[in-house]
Amino acid sequence: MNEVRHLLISPGPHLWRGLSVSKIMYLVVIALLFPTGAAIYFFGHHALSVIGVSIGAAVLTEYICKRLRGKVFTMDGSAVVTGLLLALVLPPMIPLWMVALGAIFAIAIAKEAFGGLGHNIFNPALAARAFMSMSFTLEMTTWVAPTGFSADAVTMATPLGEGFIWTAGRPSLYQAMFFGNTAGSLGETSALFILIGGFFLIGRGLINWRIPAIYIGTVSLIALAMGQDPLFHILAGGLMIGAFFMATDYVTSPLTNRGKIVFAVALGTLTMLIRRFGGMPEGVCYSILFMNAMVPLIDRYIKIRPYGLMERASAG
Amino acid sequence: MSIGLKKRNSSGGVKVPEHKLSEDIAIEEAPLPEKVVIPLQQNIGAPAQALVKRGDRVLTGQKVADSDKYVSAPVHATLSGEVSGTTMVVNPPTGQLVEALVIAADGNDEWVECKVPKNPESLSVKEMLELIREAGVVGMGGAAFPTHVKLSPPKDKKIDTVILNGCECEPYVTSDHRVMLEYGEEVLSGLNIIKKVLSPQNTYIAIEDNKQDAIDHLEKLIHDRGLQNDMKVIPLKAKYPMGAEKTLIKTILDREVPIGGLPMDVGTVIQNVSTAKAIHDAVFMGKPLVERVITVTGAVRSPKNLLTRFGTPIRFLIEYCGGMSEMANTIILGGPMMGIAQFDLDFPAVKGTNSILIKTEEPVKEQDCISCGMCIEACPMRLMPTLLARHAKEGLYEECKSNYYIDDCFECGSCTYTCPANIPIVQYIKVAKKELAKKAASK
Fold first, then answer.
1. pLDDT tens across B3-46, in order?
2. Fold for domain A21-301?
3. Which of A249, B265, B394, B413 is the most buried (most CB within 10 A)?
4. Is B249 within a domain?
5. Model pLDDT, residue B6
6. Is residue B317 assigned to a domain?
7. Which residue in B269, B264, B252, B246 sits closest to B409, CA to CA?
8. Residue-wise pLDDT tens digits, A6-65
9. How many CB pairs under 8 A join A and B?
10. How many domains is chain B built from?
């Protein structure tokens, strides 16, 4: 009658939503397939090889690092996301060994050296991009026209690289920048496909709308205040992919909604300051990296009032 | 904020799958076991001392333990028979070992004579509270706080609102739902007694909108008895943890209980629907609390809502429901969100047991936090659960208290339910609270 049964004494709750870290990572990969598709359409086999090398090197590096650190390697998808994101912010003609070196830097230095997923301070893909920009300045600023699989590469300047003399009224340029038919990093040129991927993540409740909306909003307001064309600043460069896929990285962005708002406003301001007054045409990558470093401070000092706390906590 | 919106929502919380397997299954009387194990303390407060000894014959409903402390509740025999010995069991609300009486049933279920008050309508507040205490009524929503104490707020706490809690936001559990449907008259009568004791201006019955039949039934009863001006049913959006006291007060009254405070600090008393029925039985029938409706559900052959005598071993109830599935390995007292996994199938059902849930679980592996912030979105108290867990893990308990308001947490488990990294956040918080309490006690 009294059968023996081994009971599991686990702490509650005894119900789980079922959304695991690796499921989130693969949903991000699905979202990234939209800008990835655009990259392949516009830049052909260059895109395919850069993406392949970047993801392959990232996953392999993660495997080796985990082994060296005596940890268990799991295909949780985070290395795939990092590899893919890195590929999407590189110029199409970048030599493949440089891509591999960048991916190794992203995983081994920016992520695993800090303790692995969840412990990194900087967005690994952007940290690698910054590393590559400094090491391979020429290759990282050589842009080509979007000619797909058909023709040989023809160099072409990016819209931002042409300078800020932009005034008004070239609908064909807006159109090219919206669909992605322009020079730039592999995955940054097509605002449309970034938006589709971004809205997929927002719709699934995986990223918070506040960071991209407020980041982009701040950029356009400051552009207006500076007397520049806000639409141009939104569509040009890496703002769209940065706002939707880089600044929203969980690990390197603030925890609370209030923190996210502060983070996004600061990102927009820094981006415009670099674009307008800095020595480089683009400021998205460095803005995000700089603000990544501020996240622990933001999480520490920008808090929400908990339920039932009557007096306001004293400042600081 | 005006009352009467069709559906009310709360901030934070999570949408959980309902799994209310037994919601349409009528309450059934569980058969009487051959022996019952009656813990002498089944509530928060002082333990009761045994009034009987080994070898004594006791009757069903006979008081077998009591305490002269104010915050305590007497315990009654739930079967007639002989006291065959004592044992030690865990008291679920406090987690401490307490003494329990073992009563061997004689099979007759012979009751003590219940002193039915002659004219219950004209009892004074004091007399009603005395009847409630003598019947051993405690809060049946889980915390098992003695009801007569909760109904006697200090003079300086003016109670303007009574909320009867029929939310039952835990998945699987359907005992309160069935009590509202099948004992609606008694529940409303119990609520009327609570009203007489506290004389609030407003009385609400809070029910989640996934129990439309209970909402309709109680509204009809209120209408039929002409009580529309006395009490009002408030349908609430089905969302976990809607039925938590602090969430209910925020959602219905837009008030916040201060951290570390009680609902009465904001003029509110909340009682569970099953407690209201027990209050009715005590005051109108002089009947002590010896049984309650318990949902037996999950991986059992036929889930049921069983009117169960306290002290019945959970093994007996599970077997009555056709036994559990081959693979089942987890026995939870309470719902899946806040219930506690048991290590002993012979553990007795007690006053705070609203459900016995059988599940098949696999151990999960905790991963590193990826700072997704989903726990913060889910927290109904607007806390930062992941930071509480991180600090607790490092032993920084003081930090948990001073900087992250750990005392605000009522351990609903929404954070852990939603965590992609399987971090047992609530468990870390519980450990931190225990350590803080230890430190406070040693000072």
1. 444 455 667 899 999 999 999 999 999 999 999 999 998 888 88
2. Ammonium transporter fold (1.10.3430)
3. B413
4. yes
5. 42
6. no
7. B246
8. 888 888 899 999 999 999 999 999 999 999 999 999 999 999 999 999 999 999 999 999
9. 145
10. 2
Shortest CA gap A238–chain B (Å): 23
Given this model, what pLDDT does residue B206 score? Answer: 97
pLDDT tens sequence across B237-249: 999 999 999 999 9
Alpha-carbon gap, residue B410 to B402, rounded angstroms: 17
Cβ separation B337–A12 shorter than 8 A? yes
Burial of A172 (0-12, 13-18, 19+ CB in 10 A): exposed
* Structural domain containing residue B400: 374-442
Q: Are strands B268-272 and B161-166 parallel, antiparallel or unpaired?
A: parallel
Tell if the CB–CB gap between A307 and B382 is shorter than 8 Å: yes
A164 has pLDDT over 90: no
Nearest CA in chain A to B327: A5
Cβ–Cβ of B357/A11 closer than 8 Å? no
Between CA A52 and CA A54, with CA A53 as vertex, the angle to 5 degrees is 95
State the CB neighbour count (10 A cutoff) for residue A123.
30
User: What's the token pair of residue B331?
Assistant: 């026995």
- Which of B267, B285, B303 is a domain's end point? B285
- Cβ–Cβ gap B341/A19 under 8 Å: no
ipTM above 0.85, yes or no: yes
| B393 within domain boundaries | yes
- Token pair recorded at residue B407: 């005392």
CA distance to partner chain A, nearest, from residue B17 (Å): 9
Name the domain boundary from B229, B259, B285.
Answer: B285
CB B317 within 8 A of CB B376: no
pLDDT beyond 90 at A205: yes
Query: Cα–Cα distances in Å, from B45 out to A27, A102, B250?
Result: 50, 63, 27
Q: Which residue of A has its CA nearest to B380?
A: A307
Distance CA A75, CA A21 (A): 11
Which residues of chain B does A308 touch, with a Cβ-Cβ cutoff of 8 Å?
A: 246, 256-259, 261, 381, 408
pLDDT of res. B121: 84
Domain boundaries, chain A: 21-301
For tokens 């006053």, name the residue.
Answer: B351
